[in-house]
Amino acid sequence: MKGPLFYSKILLFGEYGIIKDSKGLSIPYNFFKGALKKDENGDEKAKESNAGLRKFAKYLEQLEQDNPGLVSFDLDSLRKDVEEGMYFDSSIPQGYGIGSSGALVAAIYDKYAHNKITVLENLTREKLLRLKEIFGKMESFFHGKSSGLDPLNSYLSLPILINSKDNIESTSIPSQNTRGKGAVFLLDSGSSGETAPMVQIFMEKMKQEGFRKVLKDQFIKHTDACVEDFINGNVKSLFGNLKQLSHVVLDNFKPMIPKEFHKLWKHGIDSNDYYLKLCGSGGGGYILGFTEDIEKAKKALKGYNLEVVYNF
Question: Which uninterrupted H or E stretch holds 101?
Fold first, then answer.
């Protein structure tokens, strides 16, 4: 047995903001992927994954009981496959902000959900929201609370535009200019991050009126502008808004940025060689970078591992 492939994702814009109804833009990233496989004599990693799936199957049983009418699974088949050594074979690094648990959730839904909503049908807003709700509840097993966006992106393998909590749509983004100097890149921080504690810090900060004001008047404003600019291909305006956004994050989301990157972050803003932002919840994993000149950025970030994901 080898299931279909599910890809990682990159939330280009919207981390934390979408909790408070900012816009967001998420794109599939096909460099990393995962699939369900079976092997009774798997290695340690496979055994660990199999043990995780066993717990997940129990959780899904409870999920079904607690949410009648939302989703039901072929739990007998799932349990049988887990008994036979099924695991999730994935190259998606965990704790890196690119949707490792999202791909697993998508794979399980695809294989075991009854009456599943498929990619081939007309995906109305209602269907997208229903999928997002199902995926959010499924992925909560891993993060405590999930928006459901990562699995949705992985499942559909399409860019997703979040207009607000109740308004999401699949969208298209401008075609890449493979010869372009501008780029979106991933910067490896060298350590993984945990989502739950980062979200906890954010929720604590939200209790302060000053932080809420910054979030609404600056963070969400620039995030929304970046989404609009990116989708419409307004590169000049995009980089103006990115600079502002990078600044707001450095000033107000310091705990989410690994300490050794504070200087690097500021250098990008001061030099305009690149602008950094959080990729997912932060705390480690990947940092997302944007530059109008990738060669300049590579020079400025010499010694760091850069992975280009999109060219302007």
Answer: helix 100-112
State mean pLDDT over 68-87: 96
| CA separation for the pair 11, 128 (Å, rounded) | 17
Cβ-contact 10, 159 below 8 angstroms: no
Give one word for 192, left, alpha or beta, with left for phi > 0 and alpha for psi -120 to 50.
Answer: beta
The b/e string for 227-257 (b: 16+ C-beta within 10 A; e otherwise) is bbbbbeebbeebbebbbbbbbbbbebbeebb
Model confidence pTM above 0.85: yes
Distance CA 234, CA 254 (A): 29
- CATH assignment of 6-170, given 3.30.230, 3.10.28, 3.30.70, 1.10.287? 3.30.230
pLDDT digits (tens, 9 = 90+) for 164-200: 878 999 998 998 888 899 999 999 998 888 888 888 8
- The full set of domain ranges for the chain reads 6-170, 183-311
The Cα 170–Cα 241 span in angstroms is: 23
Q: Which residue(s) pair with 288 in the sheet? A: 186, 277
Which distant-in-sequence residues (6+ apart) come within 8 Å of 301 by Cβ? 187, 264, 274, 289
Q: Which fold would CATH assign to domain 183-311?
A: Alpha-Beta Plaits (3.30.70)
Nearest residue to 10 (alpha-carbon basis) of 157, 108, 226, 129? 157
